[in-house]
C-alpha cells in the first residue's frame, strides 16, 4: 500500500487419507489467514490479523482405536494484535500484543505477550520477555479410546486409555531474559535464561478395573483416563558466541542447559508422567565452522554433543556433520556434498517402549537451481 504498510492473505485446503492396521482416518483442513502491518504513528509499528480454520476428521473404528463420535468437525477462530513501540529511538523498544482464539473444546483463549529490548550502547543489549501460551485439547484428549495392551488371562484383561470430555487447556507462563555484548568487532557473546510454569498438564490416571461384554469374548478393562493433574517447572540457560576470525571464516559455539521438574497434584495417581524429566537431554552443545573458500566453495563443519537420557538408557554422544558446496557466480545454481553423523556408524538418540532404533551415518548430494 505504501512503504510502511503491507497486506497479505493466504488460503489453503488439505486432504489427508491414512490407512494403518490400527485405524483409518480421512482429514479435511481449510485455512484462511489475513495479516495487515502498518505504521500507526511515529514509533508505533502495528501488526494485526484474523484467521479461520475448519477441519473434519472421519475416523473408522477398529478394536485398537475408537472414537466417539466417529466424525469430528472443529472450527478455530483467531485474531492477533501487536504493537512494536519505539520508546527511545535506537535505545529502548517495547513490543506488546496478544493472540485470541476460540475453539470448540474450551471456548475463548487469550495469549498475551510483552517483550522489551534496551540497547545500552553500541556494544551492549539486554532484553526481557513474558508471555502466556496454551495447548488446547485434541481429539485424543477428549474423544478417543485406545485399547493399548491385551493380557491373555481368564478372562482377558485389556489396558485401555480413555479421553475425557472435561479435559482442560494446558497453560504455560514463560519468562525470559537475555544479554548480548560485543567486546570486540569480531566477537559477540549472548546469554539467555528462561523460567517456565506449566499448569493443567496431561496426566494418565488409573481407574478401577471393570467387566465388559462387547466385543466378545467377555473381558476386563483396566482404565487409564487422560486428566489435567500434572504441573511443571522448566528452567535453564543458553550461552552462545560468534567469532568472525577472518572475513571468510566464521566460528560459532552454543551451550544449552535444561532442568525439568514435574509435579502431580494431590488428586493424581499418575506414576508414569514424571518420567519425562529424564526423557530430555540436560546438556547440549555444538561448535560450527563456516568457511568461504576460493573457487566459489563453502565448507561447513559442525560438531555437537548431547547428554544421555537416563529414562531410556541412552548414553551421551558426540557427532559431526560436514557440508561442502559450490555456487556459480550468479548464485543461481548450487551443488553440495553432505555427510551426517560421521563419527559413528550408528548411535541411539531415543528409545520407544517397544523398540530401539539408531541413527545411521549418511552421505547425500543436493542440487539447487534458483530462477
Amino acid at each position: 500500500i505504501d512503504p510502511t504498510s503491507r497486506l497479505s492473505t493466504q488460503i489453503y485446503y488439505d486432504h489427508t487419507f491414512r490407512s494403518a492396521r490400527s485405524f483409518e482416518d480421512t482429514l479435511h483442513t481449510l485455512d484462511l489467514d489475513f495479516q495487515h502491518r502498518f505504521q500507526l504513528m511515529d514509533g508505533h509499528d502495528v501488526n494485526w490479523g484474523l484467521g479461520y480454520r475448519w477441519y473434519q476428521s472421519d475416523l473408522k473404528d477398529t478394536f485398537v482405536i475408537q472414537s466417539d463420535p466417529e466424525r469430528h468437525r472443529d472450527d478455530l477462530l483467531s485474531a492477533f494484535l501487536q504493537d512494536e513501540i519505539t520508546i527511545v529511538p535506537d535505545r529502548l523498544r517495547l513490543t506488546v500484543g496478544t493472540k485470541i482464539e476460540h475453539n470448540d473444546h474450551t471456548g475463548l483463549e487469550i495469549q498475551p505477550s510483552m517483550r522489551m529490548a534496551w540497547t545500552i550502547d553500541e556494544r551492549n543489549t539486554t532484553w526481557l520477555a513474558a508471555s502466556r501460551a496454551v495447548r488446547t485439547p485434541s481429539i485424543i484428549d477428549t474423544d478417543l479410546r485406545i485399547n493399548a495392551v491385551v493380557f491373555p488371562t481368564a478372562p482377558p484383561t485389556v489396558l485401555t486409555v480413555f479421553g475425557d470430555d472435561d479435559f482442560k487447556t494446558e497453560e504455560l507462563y514463560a519468562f525470559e531474559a537475555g544479554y548480548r555484548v560485543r567486546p570486540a568487532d569480531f566477537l559477540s557473546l549472548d546469554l539467555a535464561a528462561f523460567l517456565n510454569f506449566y499448569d493443567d498438564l496431561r496426566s494418565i490416571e488409573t481407574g478401577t478395573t471393570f467387566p465388559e461384554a462387547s466385543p466378545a469374548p467377555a473381558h476386563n478393562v483396566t482404565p487409564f483416563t487422560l486428566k489435567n493433574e500434572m504441573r511443571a517447572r522448566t528452567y535453564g540457560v543458553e550461552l552462545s558466541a560468534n567469532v568472525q576470525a577472518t572475513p571468510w571464516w566464521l566460528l560459532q559455539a552454543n551451550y544449552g542447559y535444561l532442568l525439568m521438574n514435574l509435579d502431580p497434584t494431590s488428586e493424581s495417581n499418575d506414576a508414569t508422567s514424571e518420567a519425562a524429566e529424564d526423557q530430555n537431554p540436560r546438556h547440549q552443545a555444538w561448535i560450527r565452522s563456516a568457511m568461504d573458500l576460493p573457487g566459489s566453495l563453502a565448507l561447513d563443519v559442525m560438531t555437537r554433543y548431547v547428554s544421555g537420557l537416563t529414562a531410556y538408557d541412552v548414553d551421551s554422544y558426540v557427532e559431526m556433520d560436514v557440508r561442502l558446496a559450490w555456487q556459480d557466480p550468479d548464485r543461481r545454481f548450487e551443488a553440495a556434498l553432505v555427510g551426517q553423523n560421521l563419527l559413528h556408524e550408528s548411535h541411539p538418540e531415543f528409545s520407544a517402549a517397544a523398540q530401539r532404533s539408531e541413527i545411521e551415518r549418511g552421505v547425500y548430494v543436493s542440487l539447487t537451481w534458483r530462477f
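The radius of gyration is 26 Å. The first strand starts at residue 6 and ends at 19.
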